[in-house]
Amino acid sequence: MKLLVFAHVPPPYHGQSSAVQFMLENFGGDRRKSRFRNQPPNRFSIECYHVNARFSKTLEDIGEFRIGKVLLILFYCLQAVWCRFRYGVENFYYVPAPGKPIAIYRDWLVVFLCRPFFRKIIFHWHAAGLAKWLETAVSIRTRSFTYRWMRDADLSIVLSEFNRRDAEKLTPRRIAIVAGGIPDPCPQFKTDILPRRRARVAARKKILSGKTTQVRSDEGTVKVLYLAHCTREKGVFDTVGGVALANEKLVAEKSPLRFRLTLIGAFADDEEEKELRETIQRCGQQQTIECLGFVSAERKTQALADADLFCFPTYYLAENQPGNLIEAMAFGLTIVTTRWRSLPDMLPENYPGLVDPKSPGQIADALVCLATSDFAEPMREMFLRRFTIEQHLANMARAIRSVETPP
């Protein structure tokens, strides 16, 4: 089966671009490139021909209008049509936009130009919320155009049951639920990470029980990690506020424990970065909050291994099944996150680390509550059961190949 993959790979780095890169790498690479062209068929029997449809070079540029982007759309669509006839590719894979005007206009143009040339159309819904956005936030004209150009796809792939509705809104011929997946970033979990997590939880319990009179600074420090783009909607301000309130609560209770927060992720806006640093100063948390920005893969892995808690109180409009939560689960991290979109469904039933969006007070309470909880094994098991790259690729291949049979 030949598949035209019309989607971009990093940079910029985010869940969607990384997922496309994983798929290309594991489906045998881009057959447009000479080094992959004559490779034997991969185990999934899918040959990918990639159009790297990158419209934004930086986070700041995502969703913004530039006349150059219109020219890029035409250029990428010409590449897709050329691949259709040069390599005989009949199946078109595309990642639709979330509920943003400029992005949805781009989708109209891409589908209008490319759809007539391909036999099968496959949409992969990484973002969530398009159905509600179409119903409540746009004009009838926008809704009508979206239905006209994007309905009746041969297959819509969604990440979870939550965003099935986004696909159903455009009446595809079939829908497949395929959870996201990543390569295991922590294969040494049982031998290295799990014993360390248990030892640190035991030490904190001992400190709070009063059975030890000498508290080492490292044992009395609860390491909290925020790993995502540092934006307000992703919850970075609420994380800072929650940690500050949690430390104030511990001081008032004369507890020997303290929270230390590490922020890792690029800023999408200079003004927001300035405001965040001022907020940290105003809270008096300069000594307990470290802002690292974008870091190397090695540094990120080390931060995930060293952390005790993972805090991600997002309320981002298009949030669906974020890769950072999957990474945190792979490392057995206890998680504090929001009751938002698909996030509760990713975690164990009745999980105590869920908070309402925009609620630093609830974050503080959850951090204090979970500081002595041990969810390392349940989180790791959840990752192994649902979010490994092997399961993801096998389910993706099965879904994509399903378009070869009648719906």
Which terms would index this structure?
single chain; 407 residues; alpha/beta; Rossmann fold; 2 domains; six-stranded parallel sheet; 16 helices; 14% strand; elongated
Structural commentary:
This protein is an alpha/beta fold and 407 residues long. The protein has 2 domains: 2-181 and 388-404, Glycogen Phosphorylase B (Rossmann fold), CATH 3.40.50.2000; 189-386, Glycogen Phosphorylase B (Rossmann fold, 3-Layer(aba) Sandwich). Helices cover 44% and strands 14% of the residues. The strands form 2 sheets. A 6-stranded parallel beta sheet has the order 2-1-3-4-5-6, with helices on both faces. Helix 9 packs across helix 14 and helix 12 crosses helix 15. The radius of gyration is 23 Å and the shape is elongated.
